[in-house]
Design brief:
This protein is α/β, with parallel strands linked by helices. The chain contains 14 helices and 19 strands. The protein has an eight-stranded mixed β-sheet, sandwiched between helices. A five-stranded parallel β-sheet has the order 2-1-3-4-5, with helices on both faces. Helix 1 runs parallel beside helix 2 and helix 5 crosses helix 8. Bound molecules: ligand PMT.
């Protein structure tokens, strides 16, 4: 359901007994990270109170077209432009008929007319009303206009009838809403992503590491899943939860990360090295905790860690290989150097001298450098940048001549 994070959803509720299920749908959208604005027809307010939906959505509920107070807040045209998605659940037979006729005689129909956002309807009505020629003809016409219908379900109805007309359960509607945001850009592809820091042990209680939070790599995993890919996320120690539909392997050291990457590397079509891998590890790991002793200084002999991404990129059948370059100066020059030395197809350079972006921040800014192209992705959330990077990778892959 992560695909609904930051999505702006108008949930329209029309008059029908299934209106009570919209409370749960509102809660599910909120839990998924969506910003929800509820719009109710006057009939809907007979079944469930606006106050309930206001408490669950955390936003004022809109009920009337000509409400000066609501218009002073977010006017109906502004609301129509604000929405990424409009979901009407339940959608009554009357609402479907009015929508099909292009009417704008209440706030909800007006919003549907005034918005370019995708529109999905979850019908709920008596089975005879659903099967009637008029309703079926209205549904047919709306389908031609790219309106999406979810359901109805079939079964026992509140009126005692049995048949089609039950609103889909809120969980199913939330799931279908999320699926609207799945693209097919990487469908059939397997993507390996490394994320987070590595920890290189000095003794049983001490280690060398860095400030990587894993946020950038995890955002990439979400974006790759959304693009239809199968994703393996090889993660250093971070506190982030595993994204949905992602196979995650938790590791500690660079050597463990390499072993996990190589385990099933033949299956990998795209490799993205976002992890901040320690370049060196203590040459000897003490078996017992090192004692302070009497000396004011101690020396730590360090050994070079394997270069994971370079190992992947050296393979005869190398996956499309994307590196990251965390730089504090001469960003483009150093990043281009890594692109060439490590035999990468693309490198995403970020300026980690800027504390607002990069390590442990929710935002980043990337310069994407490949053999012939350079593209600047301006500062934005890591979620947005991850989607842009995945789109760029998909584009470059279409231009790639397989080795
Ligand atoms: O995790 P966040 O807090 O969200 O921060 C994100 C980030 C800043 C860590 C990320 O955007 C980033 O820049 N990751 C790469 C950091 C890095 O170690 O860069 P590098 O220039 O040292 O390494 C270049 C590339 O080689 C990287 O793809 C790295 O994963 C890879 N590498 C490096 C060393 C090594 N031994 N093996 C590797 O695979």
């Amino acid at each position: 359901m992560q695909r609904l994070t930051n999505k702006r959803i108008i949930l329209g509720i029309t008059g029908g007994i299934a209106a009570y299920k919209s409370a749960e749908l509102t809660r599910l959208y909120k839990t998924a990270g969506a910003d929800v604005r509820v719009v109710m027809t006057p009939a809907a307010t007979e079944f469930i109170t606006p106050l309930t939906l206001q408490a669950l959505s955390g936003n004022p509920v809109h009920t009337a077209l000509l409400d000066p107070e609501a218009e002073a807040g977010m006017g109906h045209i502004e609301l129509a432009r604000w929405a990424d998605l409009i979901v009407i659940a339940p959608a009554s037979a009357d609402f479907i008929a009015r929508l099909k006729s292009g009417m704008a005689n209440d706030l909800l129909t007006t919003l549907c007319l005034a918005s370019d956002a995708p529109l999905a309807l979850a019908p709920a009505m008596n089975q005879a009303m659903w099967r009637s020629t008029q309703t079926q003809s209205n549904v047919f016409d709306l389908l031609q206009q790219q309106v999406v219908f979810w359901g109805p379900d079939s079964g026992e109805q509140a009126c005692g009838d049995v048949g089609p007309g039950r609103m889909l359960e809120p969980g199913a509607i939330a799931q279908l809403s999320a699926e609207l945001y799945t693209t097919k850009l990487l469908s059939g592809k397997t993507v390996f992503i490394t994320a987070g820091p590595t920890r290189e042990a000095i003794d049983p209680v001490r280690y060398i590491s860095n400030h990587s939070s894993g946020k950038m790599g995890y955002a990439l995993a979400v974006a790759a899943v959304e693009a239809g890919a199968k994703v393996k996320l090889i993660s250093g120690p971070v506190i982030l939860p595993c994204p949905e539909r992602v196979e995650r392997v938790m590791i500690e050291s660079a050597e463990q990360m390499l072993a996990s990457v190589l385990e099933d590397i033949d299956a990998c079509d795209i490799f993205i090295g976002c992890a901040a891998v320690a370049d060196f590890r203590p040459a000897h790991q003490a078996e017992q905790k090192i004692k302070k002793g009497s000396s004011d200084t101690i020396s730590l002999l360090m050994s070079k860690n394997p270069d994971i991404i370079a190992t992947v990129a050296q393979r005869t059948h190398k996956p499309f290989t994307v590196g990251f370059a965390a730089e504090t100066e001469n960003m483009q020059e150093y990043a281009r150097g890594k692109l060439e030395q490590k035999n990468l197809d693309l490198i995403a350079a970020n300026d980690v001298s800027n504390t607002e972006i990069g390590f442990n921040s929710d935002e980043n800014a990337l310069t994407l450098i490949s053999d012939k192209q350079q593209l600047v992705l301006e500062q934005a959330s890591k979620a947005v940048l991850a989607q842009q990077l995945i789109r760029h990778i998909a584009l470059l892959m279409t231009q790639r001549i397989d080795p």
